[in-house]
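Troubleshooting: if your tokenizer reports a length mismatch, compare your output against this known-good record of 167 residues.
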Amino acid sequence: MDDEYHEYVRSALPALRRLAYVLCQDGHRADDLVQGALVKLYLHWGKARAATNRDAYARTVLVRVFLGEKRAGWARRVVLVDRLPDVASTGPDPAATLALRAALATLPAKQRAALVLRYYADLSVDETAEALGCPANTVKSHTARGIAALRRVLPDETHPADTRSGR
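Known-good structure output:
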């Protein structure tokens, strides 16, 4: 069982860390989120192993650790804002990427999680609803409100795409 868990973690770790970073915008916090998610995943490995989609299960655990952290107030106790990010932006337009990340960080946790899962992780509404543990209509509402909030603060050329084909 442990070997199977370790093999899964080796393959899934980069994607989980990227998702965590997009959610929290801080490399160290992303590492903490992933570590917390991996602990929970290990404790419930029997259920995770039996899941039809282990990656979806792991993403759900990670998002719930992120949302639980927000509810617990950890972000209010420890905030590192006087440091530059550890990793340089690799997007096509670094200024637009930074503007989008800053705007995304201002959203409430559930709106941010909905947008990240829908547009970064490329999940469907139903998959996002399952990961967040809420109805599909709530995902649609969080997504619409999040996009509207981003449009209010971002210049026109940095708006995220808001149309989904076939999803």
